[in-house]
Structures
1.
Amino acid sequence: MTKHVHLLYDFARPHTIIATSVQVITMLIIVAGWRPLTPDLIGLALATLIVCLALNLYVVGINQLTDIEIDRINKPWLPIAAGRLRMRTGRRIVVAALVIALTGAAVLSTALLITVSVIALIGSLYSLPPLRLKRHPLAAALSIASARGVIANVGLAFHYQSHLAVDLPLTTLILAGVFFFGFALVIALYKDLPDARGDRLYQIETLTTRLGAQRVLQLGRVLLSLCYLLPIGVGLWSLPTFAAGFLALSHAIVITLFWWASFRVDVNQQQSITNFYMFLWGIFYTEFALLSIYQLTEPF
């Protein structure tokens, strides 16, 4: 039993599981605010989390099912590429995940059903022929940025509002939408850095194969810095409240750490690039926590 759970965990890509979980919980905190933690609220969070994790499993699973040969070069540790999970079993898992996601979303709210349906469609178009958007750098980046950065956040906010009957914190949501769209663009750029060898072999055109790793790394630095200027600027403009100071200072610290880490990357070593990419995901998780703290402290 433990072996099967571990296999499913690997198939679902751990860093995306963490990102989805943090996103679901953080958006609830942002929308609910200081509402007491009741059994109903916990139940809502858990049910939403199950739906979103199932959706995440579908999206990452279908990508692995269509990238087996490439993954054997770029990510040989993945279950299907490594031969630990049979193709037929992978298909069954992906179909079951989609059914759970759509059914659960339909039960919970219209907003969540629309969100899940749109993201599942984007995930399908990203991986499956004939469009296979991942072959086109701009389309691939926009797909990831819109799904992970905007649609998921906005959809979760309206989903929670439908249950809690509260006014949405529009300033925080707009800030989160713009910020995470840009952040997800950088993730989309950097996700191909460790995969250059396999992408070139199978003629998958990415900005890394077109421009080279060093230029893509620098482009990401610029884009992410622009993203961070937004919350830093909002914080400075709103001083002298505690929330404003926290928003500006915390983001200044994080972007400084990012630049420090980016200059330590050896673009000629795949492990170094992979470690940096995982560090970027760590910053992504941190950002949800920072924005939730900002929202909770805004009245002070």
2.
Amino acid sequence: MLIFRNNIYDQQEVNPNRHLSCSDIEGRKISNPYNFLSVALTEEFDVISFLQRQPTEYWAQDSKKFYPRSHKMGNYSTFIDILNILIDGLENRKTWQTMNTYHFCFLYDVLVRFSFNYNHDNKKGRLESLPELKGKPFRIEMFIKDYFFNTVFLLNEDQYNSLTRPEKIKLGYDCPLQFAVINGLFPTNYEIKLQPSSNYPYSIYV
């Protein structure tokens, strides 16, 4: 089970003190974060397969287009490895697992692109992709806000490297391996592994 800011496996488990607007409430009722992630990640195999079939001289350009944030942290082989790891973690209901910035950065690119394509599809296509949304647009910015701990990977090298450690902590930029991702370092096999958590990761409200 993947650990996000809010529990994707139990939609009822949200902070009761958090104010929800009417649009937030409607969005929560019609969206299923687990299924959204499952569909988007599963379809990503087809995307990468398509990109790999293109002439190799276009790979660098295509990678920047399809993965505008994560292209510098790996290649298609890296993305397939991360994709397999994320799907395994998503479907594993026995262990809570922690992601790092490599995972979140890749996820961001995948989900933003998937949502863009979904929102620009016709109603029939939307219903086939995510029937629980009943053909309505999906508000990806709300999903990112609700389920991502931060989006530090959106900073460029100069923006991130100019911050002091106290400034990073104050801004909530404390996700593991964020320096490596922002500065374009390819991950090791260990760095793209999920880390198991022995504790229940969410607050329990009574």
3.
Amino acid sequence: MNNSIAGLDLAKNVFHVVFFDRHFKEVRKRMLRRNQVLAFFANTPPVLIGMEACSGSSYWGRELIKLGHEVKIIAPQHVKPYVRGNKNDYNDARGIAAAAKIPGMPTVPVKTIEDQDIQAAHRMRTQCIRDRTALCNSMRGLLAEYGIVLARGVSKVRKGIPELLEDPDNALTPFFKEMLARRYEQLVEIDGHIDFYTQKIKQRAKEDDACKRLQTIPGFGPINASAFKSAVGDGSAFSKGRDVSASLGVVPRQHSSGGKDNLLGISKRGDRYLRSLLVHGARSTVRAAANKDDQLSQWINRLRERRGIHKASVALANKMARIGWAVLHNKTTYRASLGAGAMGGDASGGGSEQGL
């Protein structure tokens, strides 16, 4: 590594790269076609390459690391303040390089191909769930035009549609019933897709050592353990657990001035999907804690009594993120016998029966 920095502006077909020396003086720039990128960097001495987080950034990160370069992937909101002048590709690359040279700049981990597989499975599963929700709402809306109101919820729609199709005395015409039956077939098909992706995720979580260790933490099941692992990786991109919880938006938002701290609600930054999984897993653990007397459950029950179930759930999600980072970073497991936030070499804290 020769202390040089390169800012690489990623795109679908045309890439732009700007190089800077150790004093951050621009030395050269280059436009590259997609099929030229790897060959170009293969003949370039090892440098620190900054890239904006986007689709494809992990792929390029893995390939450039194989060529001996150091890679920093930076979230777009952290790059934007360093882009000067008019909007163009070279200025974007310069801004990326300027952000990459800042000490302590938050970075996005370069995902392994295994983590990317799991993330893709979660994305596909989530899209199917959204499609199912949209389909159920569409059928409920159409039925309302005929004076039939189905209760909210997928299970209510799944149960109610066949009954309506078989009822000869309702207001539905044969023509509409035929179309509704086709929509119901779509619902059954989407249910099958969701089950398929869910089983694939659970199977991978069962085989992955890091996911198995995460599931020793209360509130972590196979779904959110695999999602957490695919997002955080081995934890090396974060210096401490609080950075992980902050990146997921489960820490208080600050509005402080004049030496007076003013803490507001949680910031809700970062991955909304993973944050929702953590909160749902935490909520199930909070409910189960009422019948337990271990140290973590005692902490949960005291907090729930003071602040209510919702704030207790978010506070536990914060703690889960921190413990999850420690489990991944230290390659260890959660041990409830040592206390609310302790980890040890063997799993003795049961958490996989709760959560997602």
4.
Amino acid sequence: MDELKQQIKETIITSLQLEDVTPEDIVDSEPLFGEGLGLDSIDALELGVALKKKFGVKFSSENSENRNYFASVDSLAAFIQAKREEAN
């Protein structure tokens, strides 16, 4: 799971062009939005597309759980891991 979290952090940085941020700057349990990393709704859309390309997971616009999935690196990793297990 640590490798997955590292890949998610790298995807966040590259897809959102966060040039001044390193993976070590992103704390797994801290919020990605608001007071945490400071991402916004446009960032969420861009990140969703990047995660789909990298990990093959799809976020449905009708799913009310998306906010929970995007809460932190921990929650994104759990979501992606669960989707991988469903596929197998």
